[in-house]
Design a protein that fits this description.
Helices cover about 45% and strands about 10% of the residues. By secondary structure, the chain is of the alpha/beta class. The strands form two sheets. Strands 3-2-1-4-5-6-7 form a seven-stranded parallel beta sheet, sandwiched between helices. A five-stranded parallel beta sheet has the order 10-9-8-11-12, with helices on both faces. The radius of gyration is 21 Å and the shape is globular. The chain starts with a strand and ends in a 9-residue tail after the last helix.
């Protein structure tokens, strides 16, 4: 079967799909992954066919603090560029489209035009529920009715963001006029299946979700079976007690100098060694007790840490939990406060430190707490044991065998 995975966004929005694609290829399918050009090497290096999308993830995930109106403006600009790119990526054809959260609203139109099957493969629980508020928002629960109402409102906002791009895409594809809201409601009425790639340990499936929505466990970024950490990293890890990881992923661009100094100060205050991941912020510091690294697999690095300081992106939050290591979440924007809150709810993380409120003193105290209070590690390890039996990629591989049932 020819499968086209479509994912757009920052590293954490794309990398997990390399692992999913490799799993599907191992099942005998031809797999291509459409993603921003930035990730060509990441995708091709996993052995998957790469198809480029003309969007710049750095333009949608800046580290500075922005208001809701700015986030919506950036999202609108992102969507405007995405429609034609998805159509171009799909032009070679596919039997099945696997659509991420960011690509599904336009991918539904592509699937209709191609008469192809489609399946949602989401990394966030974006569908309305009374059990928690929308994952992108203030984060305060409004009760069951209020949570569902704000979730439904959020869907209408997403519809409006896609109105122009969807109209142009349908015209390009020769499809009859159909509004974005009408198309979304059609797939919902048909119980379009969405498999969510996060652990039910972290977010159990809401009881009020419609049929077809499942929580199946993570699919993880592809890592070669013979991969080993660089010798420099191994030497540092063996030279002393387990260090604390500090990284902000695709966040905080341009703030590397300030954050590097802050991180080193916080590590000193906590009396621990540290591994800084440069990321898009450009963290960079050295010394006997601090090592700066580039992009390394969390699956290999996190289990060696005493604690993990991170921006609470969906993938990083899950990787820390999978490693059984305490987290110190420093959420920046979008869905990160939600994931930070879930880690804290489990008892596997200290209370979140909003990025805007980050200081060396506050971070140092949180690191000390995460390392010295054994309860955080105990709860992280318990969650890791719960996640150990999950295989989200296998659940997707099983679902794609029901191809006739995936046409909407």
């Amino acid at each position: 079967m020819r499968i086209l995975i479509m994912a757009a966004g920052s590293y954490g929005d794309v990398a997990p799909y390399t692992g999913l694609g490799v799993r599907l290829r191992g099942e005998g399918h031809e797999v291509a992954l459409a993603a921003p050009e930035t990730f060509r090497e990441l995708v091709s290096g996993s052995g998957l066919e790469f198809r480029s999308l003309p969007v710049d993830p750095r333009g949608t995930s800046a580290g500075e603090q922005v208001g809701r109106s700015s986030l919506l403006a950036r999202a609108a600009a992102f969507v405007e560029r995405l429609g034609d790119g998805l159509a171009d990526a799909a032009a070679p054809g596919a039997d099945l489209l696997l659509l991420a959260t960011t690509t599904a609203p336009l991918g539904w139109h592509l699937a209709e035009a191609m008469e192809a099957a489609s399946l949602g493969v989401y990394l966030q629980p974006t569908l309305p529920t009374g059990e928690f508020p929308p994952v992108v928002g203030p984060g305060r629960s409004l009760g069951r009715w209020g949570n569902r109402a704000t979730g439904a409102l959020g869907q209408r906002v997403v519809d409006r963001l896609h109105v122009g791009a969807a109209r142009r895409l349908r015209a390009r594809l020769g499809l009859p006029v159909c509004s974005q809201t009408e198309r979304r409601r059609a797939v919902e009425r048909a119980n379009w299946p969405v498999l969510h790639g996060f652990s039910p340990v972290l977010v159990p499936r809401p009881a009020d979700w419609r049929e077809g929505l499942r929580v199946v466990g993570n699919w993880w970024p592809h890592v070669a079976s013979d991969y080993r950490l660089p010798a420099e990293v191994e030497d540092f890890l063996r030279a002393g007690p387990p260090p604390v990881f500090i990284g902000f992923g695709s966040m905080a661009g341009g703030e590397g100098e300030r954050l590097s100094g802050l991180a080193v100060d916080a590590l000193r205050r906590a009396g621990v060694r540290g591994v800084l991941q440069s990321g898009w912020a450009g963290l960079d510091a050295g010394g006997n007790d601090v090592l700066t690294v580039g992009e390394l697999p969390h699956s290999h690095l996190f289990p060696r840490m005493a604690a993990v300081v991170h921006h609470a992106g969906a993938g990083t939050a899950a990787a820390a939990l999978r490693a059984g290591v305490p987290s110190v979440p420093v959420p920046v924007t979008a869905d990160q406060p939600f994931w930070a809150g879930q880690l804290t709810r489990l008892g596997a993380a200290t209370g979140p430190i909003p990025f805007a409120d980050l200081t060396a003193a506050r971070l140092g105290e949180a690191i000390r707490q995460a390392v010295e209070d054994r309860s955080y590690r105990d709860r992280a390890e318990a969650a890791a044991r719960g996640m150990a039996g999950e295989d989200g990629a296998a659940r997707v591989a099983e679902a794609v065998t029901d191809l006739p049932l995936l046409r909407y």
